[in-house]
Amino acid sequence: MSFISNLITVIKEKKSVVCMGLDPQLEGVNRIPECLIEQYNNPNDIILNFNKELIEKTYDLIPIIKPQIAFYEKYDALNALKETIKFAHKKDLLVLLDSKRNDIGATSEAYAFSNYEVFNADACTINAYLGYDCIKPFLQYENKGKFILVKTSNPSSKDFQDLFSLNLENISNEEYEIAIDKLNPDLKLKRNYIQMAELIQKWGVNLERYNDYHNLGIVAGATFPEELKILRKIVKNSFILIPGFGAQGATAKDVKYGFNQEGLGAIVNSSRGITYAYVNNKFKPEKFADAAKNEIKRMNLEIKKEINL
Amino acid sequence: MSFISNLITVIKEKKSVVCMGLDPQLEGVNRIPECLIEQYNNPNDIILNFNKELIEKTYDLIPIIKPQIAFYEKYDALNALKETIKFAHKKDLLVLLDSKRNDIGATSEAYAFSNYEVFNADACTINAYLGYDCIKPFLQYENKGKFILVKTSNPSSKDFQDLFSLNLENISNEEYEIAIDKLNPDLKLKRNYIQMAELIQKWGVNLERYNDYHNLGIVAGATFPEELKILRKIVKNSFILIPGFGAQGATAKDVKYGFNQEGLGAIVNSSRGITYAYVNNKFKPEKFADAAKNEIKRMNLEIKKEINL
To answer: Which of A74, A258, B165, B172 could, after both became Cys, cross-link B110 (CB 3.0–4.6 A)?
Structure first.
C-alpha cells in the first residue's frame, strides 16, 4: 500500500493531522523524566520505554510519528529506534523517519535501503542540495513517502534558502556573460526555496496520485506562514510536513495555509511541545504520557478551528 | 590537537594527499571479495576485516581515510564503523566520516556529538542548505574538521547548485518588486555553489589557522575542474575534499587546481577505485589489499606530477 493513501485514510479516520516527534533527550530542561532514567540502566531501554508509553497513550489521536534519528545516534540507541518503529506499526501508526539524508549513486541507494528496509520507516526526509541523483534511489521505493527540505523552520534558513536565484537551464560558463547582459526587469528572479519547490513539483509530475497527492512531499516550517502559502500553490500534489509548531513559536493560524479545503495536504509536527509537555504544565513527571496526550488534544482542537477536517 | 594541523603534518610526512574511501558493499560488481564474505558469517565481521586488511596494508601511504556511513547503516554494521575508526587511529590515520548530516538546534548538536564523540571521527562532511544554524554546533568542536558540500561531483549537481542566485541581504518580501526593478547588467549574479562557498568563507573568517588553513573545509568534485579553480580562490583558508577521482572519471590534471604552490590545500578521495581495484586488474580477489596499495601508489604518483608536494 502506498504511504500517502494510508496517511490520508488514517487522517480521515482519526480526524487528526498531528505528527508526534520523538526526539529523546537524557539531559537539559526538556528531557525524559528522571524516574525512567533511574528505572532502566541504559539509553536503549530508557528511550524505548519512554517512546512506548507515549505511543500507547496517544496512538488513537495521531496518524503518524516522526522519530529524529540524530538523537538515537547520539545515545548509540539505534536499537530503540528500530523497536519503537516496530511498536508503532503494531499500533497502526505510520512512521516518518527524520533523517535528512543526501548523497549520490550507490551511497544514496544505501541510505534509501537503510531508511526503508533496515529501519522499516514508511517515509523519510531528504535534503536535495545534490539534485535529482540524490532522490532517484528513494523514488525507486514507489510506495514509500519522501519529504524534501524546502523552507526549514530555523531563523538562518534565510542564509541560503532565501537567496534570489534564476533558473537559466543548462547554461554554460561561456554563456554566463551573455546571461548577465540579458538581465532585465522582465526576468523573474525566485528565491532558492521556490526554485527547490519547483524542482520537486517537476520531479513528481508523473507519480501516481491518491486524492490528488503523491508520495513526494516537502518540508516547510510553520514559522514562515507567508512562504507556506506560496509553496502550497507550487507543490499542488505534495503533502507538506510542517515543523515549528509549539516550541518554535508557530500557531494553528500559521499552519492553516498548508491545507486544502478538505483539511488535507499537510501534517503538523510538534516534538518537544508534546513529549516534554509535562515540564511546563500541571502533570507530574511520571505522568508525561498523559501530559503528551493532553497537549495533542489541545493542539488538534486548535488546528481544527482553522481547517475543515 | 587541531584536525587541520594534524592533517598538514601527516600530508608532509607521508608525501601523500590521497584519501581512501571505505564504502563496503556486499553485492554488485564492486564488492568485498567472496573469500571474506564466506569466511565471516555476518556483515559486521566481514566489513571490519575487509577494512582492517586495507588499512594494515596502506596506512603508511595515506594521511586519512573516509568511511561513508550510509553503507554501514545499510548493513546494520555501525559496530564495524566504530571498530574501523579505532583501528585507523591506532595506525595514526585521520578519519573523515562522510555523513553529510544537516539539521538545527538540539538536533544538529546531537549529530555533532554522534559524529565526533560516538564515532570519534576527526572530521565529517556537512550539508549547509539549512544555513548557519546547521553548522554552529559542529563549530563548537573547535579542533574537529568540517567539510561543507559546495559543488558535488555528480552530474545532477547542476539541478540546484548551478542556478544563478543573487545575495540581496535581508531583503523582505515587500522589497522583492523593487529588487527586480533594480536589476541591471552591473548586478553580479552568482551560481548557488559560489554563494555557498562565500557563506563558508564568511563563517570561517575568525577561526584559528595553521599554515593558512582552518578547520572549516569544503567539498568540491574533481569532475568539475573549472569550478574547482574558482572555488580555490574564494575559500582561501579552507581545505578542499575532492571526490570524483578514478571511478567517476576525473584525473590528476583535474584535481591540481585544489592545491597551493606547496602542494597543500586539498585531499583527493577515491573509494571504489582503490578498495575494489582488484576487480579490474591482475590481482586475485584475496589480494584486494595489495591491489589497493598498488592503486594508491599509482594515484599518488600521478597527482604528484601535477602538484609540488
So the answer is: A74
Subunit contact A163:B195, Cβ cutoff 8 A = yes
pLDDT digits (tens, 9 = 90+) for A218-254: 999 999 999 999 999 999 999 999 998 987 789 999 9
Q: Could you say which of B105, B133, B164 has the minimum Cβ distance to residue A168?
A: B164
Q: Find the CB nearest A159 among B110, B131, B158.
A: B131
pLDDT 10s digits, A56-88: 999 999 999 999 999 999 999 999 999 999 999
Contact A166 B165 (CB under 8 A): yes
Is residue A183 assigned to a domain?
A: yes
pLDDT digits (tens, 9 = 90+) for B1-51: 899 999 999 999 999 999 999 999 999 999 999 999 999 989 999 999 999
Catalytic positions of B, written as ranges: 100
Per-residue pLDDT tens digits for A172-221: 555 545 555 555 444 556 889 999 999 999 999 999 999 999 999 999 99
Query: Is position B202 within any domain?
Result: yes
Distance from the B12 Cα atom to the nearest Cα atom in chain A, whole angstroms: 31
Q: Residue A211: inside a domain, yes or no? A: yes
Q: Do B183 and A170 touch (CB under 8 A)?
A: no
CATH classification at residue A225 = 3.20.20.70
CA distance B103 to chain A (A): 8
Its domain, for residue A264, covers 3-304
| Chain A residues touching residue B76 (CB < 8 angstroms) | 118
Count of the separate structural domains present in chain A: 1
Measured between beta carbons, which residues in chain A are less than 8 angstroms from residue B134?
Answer: 154, 156
Cβ–Cβ gap B185/A183 under 8 Å = yes
Q: Is residue A309 part of a domain?
A: no
> pLDDT, tens digit, for every residue of A4-54?
999 999 999 999 999 999 999 999 999 999 999 999 989 999 999 999 999
From the CB of residue A29, how many other CB atoms can be counted at a distance below 10 Å? Answer: 9
Of A173, A181, A183, the CB nearest to B226: A173
